[in-house]
Structures are given as structure tokens and as C-alpha cells.
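To close the section, here is one more complete example, presented without commentary so you can practise reading it yourself. The ligand is NDP.
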Amino acid sequence: MFGLIGHSTSFEAAREKARTLGFEEFAEGDLDVWCSAPPQLVEHLQVTSATGKTIEGAYIDSCFVPEMLSRFKTARRKVLSAMELAQKNGIDITALGGFTSIIFENFNLLKEQQIRSTTLEWERFTTGNTHTAWVICRQVETNAPKLGIDLSQARVAVIGATGDIGSAVCRWLSQRTGVKELLLVARQAQPLLDLQQELGGGRILKLEEALLEADVVVWVASLPQTLSIDAASLKSPCLMIDGGYPKNLDTKASGNGIHVLKGGIVEFFSDITWQMMEMAEMDNPKRQMFACFAEAILLEFEGIHTNFSWGRNNISLDKMDLIGAASLRHGFQALGLSAQIDPTP
Ligand code: NDP
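Output:
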């Protein structure tokens, strides 16, 4: 059985969801009420692969909302309690979606294996980052040529290059895709230098500098709300893969020749009967989902019950190959730009 741990995109969206599901007391409650709310297993579902195999799963809402990010103890409790609920329900492999994997890593919750009477078994959980990284690379490879961008001649900026997903994307784009040059962007200097050495190349730049030169920009960092982009200074055409969470890049960069694609999103080949993705603001909620969620589904299809993506900067190209092949075999496709694209700037 696979599990998905998710959360609403905002406090208001969470209240709306509670109203839809009939949890009136939460729908009317303030943020403090939500802070003390336990996680809920809100939905059981079945998924049938393109190979014909059918598996069972469950969606757990952690009752976390981004407005709680500054409340360390609450965020920590929400994530760990949701994991405990997944394990108590006998779920073999559960993906930590949205902010939950970031909270797990950044708050170092690996130290907190004991939750009440439950010892969390880490092998039951995955961040889903290997599949997310593979999907983002595939989105670069298939969509850049649609805009007339020849990747062998292109500069690709990776914003968040030293992160778990970013570093995997850099490895793949330099070794497999063969882009002309990687532009590496993050805030801390030493991890950037270490990455540059590991890759044997790539140029370290500030965000503003990288944006001026990039034909493709891969965003794999949660950026401040205040970030503004001077769209007029971007190259045209410019492919922007919005791999961060939440996905709000289209509100910051738009204009002639700028093509923003939601990154790390996959579409399944057939409809899935579930309510939860309706709330995740997907264009086609019966088929589209975050690639990290799809990783748990893929691991269940493949019978791989282990924490496939875990820790930081452990994603190898071999693992990306494995999960990528499974993704295609079971009927997932990376989200692409619409067919109606005029490649002229
Ligand atoms: P990490 O915490 O491992 O990495 C974050 C990276 O972003 C680091 O390189 C960090 O480096 C950099 N960074 C953070 N803030 C800034 C900033 N203001 N300017 C430039 N660089 C910055 O995160 P992950 O790799 O796990 O996840 C990356 C993003 O992908 C997140 O936003 C996450 O929510 C999203 N995600 C999306 C998924 C999907 O859509 N399917 C699935 C999973 C994750 P430094 O600290 O040095 O700046």
C-alpha cells in the first residue's frame, strides 16, 4: 500500500477543504485550532498502471498550512504525527509532499524517531525527490527544443543548484543532456564551490546575473514572496521550469518569449478517482500530481519498499534512470508546454 502526505496551499484553502469534507468545526476554526488539529487520513484510493497492475493507497492531510512555517514546534509535530498515522495504518511506502519533506530535512527530524509509542521506520518514507529531479530534467529536454532552444548550445541556470533536487538536476544536465553551460545559483558559497568541483564545471553566478544569460531557468528553491524579476532583461525565448513550491513563477515572469512551465508535475495516462488533487490547483486534477507523490505510487507498483529518496544530495543518476523507466512504464508523462506554441520570440 502507498501513502501520500500532503497539506493545503494556504490556511484559507484548508478551511475551504474542511468545509467540503464536512469538518465544520475546523472550517470555522482559527489558526490556533488548526495548529492543534491531528492529521487525517482523508481518502483511500486505487490506481491501475498501464501494465494492468492495480494498487491501493491512502492520502493523509497533515493539517499543516504554510502559515505555520514559523512555528517550529507545530510544524515538527504536524509532520511527525502524519508519518506516525501512515505507519500505524500499515502503509508500506509514503511520500512526504509539499513542505513536509523540507520541514523534515531542515528541522533535522531524523533525530526524532520516537513519536509517543511509535518508533518511526524510515524505510517506509520517501521524499520523492529522485522522481521530481528526473521529471524536471525531462521537462527541460522535451520542451526547450519546442521553443527552438538547442540544449547543446544553451546556458541553463539552476536556481537552488546545491539543493537535493537542484544538485541532481545539475548532474543529469551536465552528464546526460550535455548542455553547453550550467549557471549555478544559491546563497551559500562553499556548497556551490563543492558542487562545481563535483561537476567539473558550471559557472557560479548571482541570481540577477544568471537570469541575463540563461536560455533555460530551472527554479528549485522556495523563493521569497518579495522576489521580482525584470522580465524585459530575460533572453527570448526563455524556458522557465517552476520546480519550487508553491508554484507562483508565472505571476513574477511573463511576457513575449517567456514560457513558464509547472515543474515536477506529471500526468497519468488515465483518470484517478480522488478528491485531493482537486484542491492542489492542478489543471487536470484527475490525472496530474506532484512527481514526489507519483514516486510513492511507482515504488508500490515496483514493490520497492524502501526510503528510495532520503537525506540530502544522495540522488544518483542510476536511481534517476530506475525511477524514470518505471515512470514511463506505468503510464506517467512529464507535464509539457501546450502544443500550440509559437517558437518565435
Ligand atoms: P533543498 O532545501 O535541498 O534546496 C534548496 C536550494 O535552494 C539550496 O540550493 C538553497 O541553497 C537554495 N536557495 C534557498 N533559498 C534561496 C534563495 N533565496 N536564492 C537562491 N537560492 C536559494 O530543497 P529541495 O531540493 O528538497 O527542494 C527544492 C524546491 O523544490 C522546494 O521549493 C520544494 O518545495 C520543491 N519541491 C517541489 C516538488 C514538486 O513540485 N513536485 C517536489 C519536492 C520539492 P542556499 O541555502 O545556499 O541558498
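Once you have examined the C-alpha cells, check your reading against these statements. Residues 209 and 265 are 28 Å apart (CA to CA). The pocket of NDP is lined by residues 102, 128-129, 132, 159-166, 185-188, 191, 207, 220-224, 243-245, 264, 290-292, 312 (CB under 6 Å).
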